[in-house]
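Reviewer 2 asked us to include a model.

Predict the structure of this chain.
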Amino acid sequence: FKLPSDSFKYLGWCDIEEHDVRGNQLRCPRVREGPSEEELFFRREEHTLKKRKQVTDTEKWEKRMQENWENCAELNLSFQDLGDLYQLENFKRILRRLIRVEKLWLVDNSLTDLSAIRLPRCRELNVNKNHFTSFKQLPKIPQIQHLSLAENNIMTLSGISDFRHAPLESLILKRNPCEFQERYRQLVFSSLPNLKMLDGIPKLPEDCSPPEIRFFYKMCTIL
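Predicted model (structure tokens):
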């Protein structure tokens, strides 16, 4: 049975008339695009489509101003269910506009690569439960202080030194394959001099010893 709200379930809040809610007033907005017209046809959900009309440049600008992503300081974009390419592209379009965001949650979005995204003011980023395999796939976050990467698929610590000059104080890598690397904690702390806490545990004296360095050399005996 159709619900009264069925005709709105794939609409963004900007498409609903007669309100003035801006993007920076929302804490957990759903920003993914709805299914394509073709997909809705095969689902037999054509009734959910809003009647198309010619969108003027003025209306496009008004929608951009209403989204107001540039002024978001704290935002939760988790659990977006980005099942199609057009949804992922719209998601990244919004991320590129978050030039002032300081706290951002992107949990469980099946993300694999955000290296083209820059978040210049972000101090706290949570990307738990995604599909990152390398530190190189993270967005550019020069001001990061707290970074959570739990439950991804990061195999090695390669690329972690890119955060060496960032003010990173807390890092969570729980349930990543790299956690089982030999001398894991020492390697992380030696790569990140500003780090104070790893996986919820403060820096310990034994974490400060430098990683073991093995020298290979030939020995010559003089008689």
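The two ends are 96 Å apart (CA to CA). Residues 23-201 form a domain with the Leucine-rich repeat, LRR (right-handed beta-alpha superhelix) fold (CATH 3.80.10.10). We have added this to the supplementary material.
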